[in-house]
Amino acid sequence: MKPKKWSVYITRRILDPAIPMISRECSVIVANHRGRPPTRNELLKAVRDKDAILCTLSDIIDAKVMDAAGSNLKVISSYSTGTDHIDIKEATKRGIFVTFTGDILTEATADLAFALILAISRQITQGHELVTLKRWKYGWDPHLLLGSDVHGMTIGIVGLGRIGSAVARRAKGFDMDVIYHNRHSRNIQMEEQFGAKHVDMDQLVEESDFLSLHCSLNSESYHLINESNLGRMKNDSYIINTARGQIINEAHLIKALKQRWIAGVGLDVFEKEPPSPNNPLLKMKNVVLLPHIGSATFLTRTKMAEVAAKNLLNVLNRKTAIYLANPEVNRG
Ligand code: DGY
Q1: Is 331 within the bounds of a domain?
Q2: Pocket lining: 324 vs ligand 1, CB cutoff 6 Å
Q3: What is the pLDDT of residues 198-219, one digit of tens each?
Q4: 316 alpha carbon – ligand 1 mean position (Å)
Q5: Could you tell me whether strands 177-181 and 238-241 are parallel, antiparallel, or unpaired per DSSP bridges?
Q6: N or C: which end of the chain has fewer CB within 10 A?
């Protein structure tokens, strides 16, 4: 058999068709650590002399990893839409292409944001527990698990981009008023089509009944939600985070929940994942917590796998990647 042209390291066993697709053209090593991501040392060792790395958001790909890979490295293909785990500037400097899975997960993530909105406001998890733990004693009860309305309320969206807009469309179906804040450019299409109203960040936190986060994580959005704006929120409002944990200062959030500045949170993401066992959020009642499953539908993860493989192979074959995070990169 002819030796394969390129050598690729894949940091997790991701869904088909990615691995068979890449294996047809490349010699592939798939990390095998019983479901956990590689440790830093395992990663540094495994990337040596690779032409391409297919990583997930659990892998920090910085200058040290690029150094360890060496000068063969041409592409870092992330099996994710967020690219905050990759030092893109450093990759660009070295002529390495960084690719991602674009808007494939948009609708699935918006669905999950809405699931959290409904779960936290209507006490879905408490209801489920009451029934399955056999603590539901007297049938229908006028006072049982009274929650908050969703329809007719105001949703405040931080980052009305692709996922934010998909959430806004769902919110319109629930007769909600949509207000939003974008740091850089307004979403005129959503304003015209869905009546979304652009407001400043202060007004957004003050007027939202549900504040849903959909911006990407970067130096501007790190700890964007903190003590000062949590203190301005309505006492009966909720925060939903399906974006990145570090957008919220978690210590401040815990304080806000304990002191009832807000009514509750629905979180799919955390500052540290998984959260440490003594994280106070784990014991709180006014929370719904999920293990970062925004994109976790079979179809979405399958499409993400296909796109991650195509991105990687396209770059190696000197074709255009489907989703490129650093279009300014120069092929040497
Ligand atoms: C992403 O892709 O960035 C999501 O957070 C996980 O699929």
Answers
A1: no
A2: no
A3: 999 999 999 999 999 999 999 9
A4: 24
A5: unpaired
A6: N
